[in-house]
Amino acid sequence: MKRIRTPLTEKDILSLKAGDEVLLSGEIYTSRDQAHKRMLKKIPLNIKQAVIYYCGPTKTPPGKIIGSCGPTTSSRMDAFTPLLLKRGLKAMIGKGRRSEEVKQAIKKYKAVYFLAYAGCGALISKYVQKARPVAYADLGPEAIYRLEVKDFPLIVGIDAKGRSIYG
Amino acid sequence: MKIINSAEIIKVVADLCLKANCNLRLDILRKLKAAYKTEKNPKAKNALAAIIENARIAAKEKLAICQDTGLPIVFIELGQDIRITGDLKQAVLQGIEQGYKKGNFRESIISDPVARGKSNYRGAVIHTDIVKGDKLKITVLPKGFGCENKSQFKMLNPTAGEGQVKEFIIQAVKSAGPDACPPYVVGVGIGGSSDYAGFLAKAALLKNVNAKRSKLERDLEKEISKLNIGPMGLGGKITCLAVRVESFPTHIAGLPVAVNISCHALRSASAIL
To answer: In CATH, what class is A2-158?
Structure first.
């Protein structure tokens, strides 16, 4: 299986095809509904080449790095995504389908959309080596967390040519 | 008359929240393992393996099966010969708050659905039924909202017949597609009133998925498997683990049908006091 590391280069991204299974390592940021809504006004992180993971983890149990942290439904973020891609966002991780607009924006800005194993939050917590909130702490589980992941198993959902695993 | 102290109810509900969120239902796990054996599509098989491994880790490490620890749906069957000291409803809500806090589960409840604001552990949908006898049965079903968002409801014409009922249910699963964590358990409520059909669809999710199923349920399972959605939407035969239907008498002028889709992480736990 192919291993890739953040920050993702254009070469990395262009080498990925919808349906490919990859292991991702490096820095990613969690962000979901309310954080996306706020980012319309101001983006509180360096979005250039960033990877966003649609995830709202549970609280962190004592002695753990993070709690259960699987992907949430990506389509709820569709309305906010083209703008973030325009600003330099390079990859998204979530579950399920994306809108036609998002697909076109992924193609235009040479980005990629990954699927994570959905409903497997306990398992996914094992790939997280570091986690800390970096913005919107008042949003609780919807705050933006910076995660350091190692060999996070993903499937390419939509590649930079706009091809989707769901057809 | 049997007396139950509300303090005991708090404790029982807290334990049920922990159990339901960290231990996948055995009937679901059994079904997933059988699905893993029969699935041929390699990607779908990997997804099923991940789901089964996730359940193992969650139980072993007392982690939530899914980060979406849901909106707690509580079903209470209250024996009419019981007297409860204290406040039953408050006891249930307190039990939920305690259990969710102890499990380090997610604060997924919003007090004001429109203004939103800060999320918390305070809130649950409680269905209470008064039954014969002196037993109190409490069931907690933490319902994740990725799949709850795919619920559908329709008032069909009374002349619609089985064909249109099936068609509506199948299109609901089709429209959920790969988004709501398939393989699904499809809960269906047929009959009653608009509100009651919705309740029945949710209650149908409490039925054992391995128990004997009706012809309607079997037919629907067969049709749904042809949708080729598969685990995580990666294709294959295993689009739903089971279809469970609850029916109820209705009015001559209507035919309410509600569909409540559950993700593969269908969680619930019960206790009898």
So the answer is: alpha beta
